């Protein structure tokens, strides 16, 4: 009986020590720096940060006034540096606007086709066509890894990041 | 306990690795291999069965034995000598004032079962020291260096245990030291040498701890085999002989062990002590225990003299066996034993303790004699008497049945030993001889001559008792066991008739 108590006790104490140490180190080395990075960016609010041993999952709410196309790619680089070896997954929490949602839905087919066939020059035309069709303004940007799309109608915005490599999913559609 | 603790920690680490997404299997296999190798190398140490480990783990005063010198029967001389040596540990300030070098070690030498371990425990109690013990065989391992490591650990643990128990001295007791302390010769294994070297280093006091005074006690029953380096002054300074108990000591030991047993008023422990010449303390303890077992088996409320007699037979000859002899074989054994018994009474009247026809150990029957008083020297007549008793069994067979049997083989071996003793002691017609220079054939010739002469004398003496054999044999075959008094009574009755 005493041996069983010793075994269970040592198991629990070790687990508490290891998990406590792990969580504390995650908070100190990952969560806190991410918060600091986001705090420096006006117009961004972290809705939720989940730090796991192999992944950092970040839910972001972006204000309509935030200059998404210019500032977000640089922010993503910083966040990836902070996450270190963990895979960074950013989920953009776009508010539900039926018209913008419909426009995004219409755009997705052409966008995905351009990415899969790697005919990236088709992307601006496809976005332009959908924006005109739904009477929206738009911004689009591409870099080595992602296509950044912003659709806007008055003070309502819809932002999305589409990975250029089809097996990557750093940014997911909401 | 350490094993369970580490198992819990290991499980927790494995769970944590799974949480981190690391496959823990290779690590688990690695740890299992490390554990296996460690337990193979020094299993006894890691599992805490080592004497020192046990002592270090014990709490409170449990490491100080409760055995007192008063509880050890006999050995008065050894106890006095040991106490004198221990006084050096007790009154060390006075010794320092006189510039006396403290005693490093005490060697207890003597036959098995004479209470050497008990003496060491009593020494620890007497000096209020922590007692840490190990057997010589615990240091023997096939891996080189493990024995030396265990010696180091033993001494370290003794120091730790003393500090933990807030004692100023510790006694390290190594039983059967001849296992590791045997003479170092060219052909001996390196492992043994390393172990012994480490022991000598520890005894030299290179690793001295000012707070704890260490005394090493060791026990052996083969002192002559020990390495001279162990026996020199500065190592084992005192050699104390713990010998087989004499009659007075046997009585004391029997009284001690019979304290908690219901003895019948008819039991004379003095007589039991007289009958148990050559018994060690352990055998005497076993004897009282066996007597109590016999009493329990028979449903007797008290231990009777018969229980003690049966217990002596058991300790001396072994347990009764189920061998069923044929009638003619049993008759031959009865005649053989009667021959021994009659001759024993003729040589030393009143010396027969029992005549038994029940098979015990390897013997089909036996005659138990007591020497009357403890004897350490024998005259020529006494030795010849013993030879005659040995030869009387076969002589009786020849006289009564007209033939001898193989049952006398052991008797002849013993008779030959006595005869050789006679020749080597200068008691034969050859006078004083050098046993190493005399040819074996000459020795054999002389002993054979002695034995033949004594055989003739034995047959002549027994021939006058021939009419007794028939009746005595019938009684012995019916009763199977006759005690000494019964046998003498029978002998008297038949002789007068």
UniProtKB/TrEMBL annotation, chain A:
Source species: Laceyella sediminis
Protein name from the UniProt record: Uncharacterized protein
Origin superkingdom: Bacteria
From TrEMBL, chain B:
Residues covered by the AAA+ ATPase domain: 102-246
One MF annotation (Gene Ontology) recorded for this entry: metallopeptidase activity
A matching Pfam family: Peptidase_M41
Record-linked SUPFAM superfamilies: FtsH protease domain-like, P-loop containing nucleoside triphosphate hydrolases
InterPro entries: AAA+_ATPase (IPR003593), AAA_lid_3 (IPR041569), ATPase_AAA_core (IPR003959), ATPase_AAA_CS (IPR003960), P-loop_NTPase (IPR027417), Peptidase_M41 (IPR000642), Peptidase_M41-like (IPR037219)
Cofactor: Zn(2+)
Transmembrane segments: 12-37
SMART domains noted in UniProt: AAA
Keyword terms of this UniProt record: ATP-binding, Hydrolase, Membrane, Metal-binding, Metalloprotease, Nucleotide-binding, Protease, Transmembrane, Transmembrane helix, Zinc
PANTHER family linked to this entry: ATP-DEPENDENT ZINC METALLOPROTEASE YME1L1, METALLOPROTEASE M41 FTSH
Family that this chain belongs to: In the C-terminal section; belongs to the peptidase M41 family.
Listed name of the protein: ATP-dependent metalloprotease FtsH
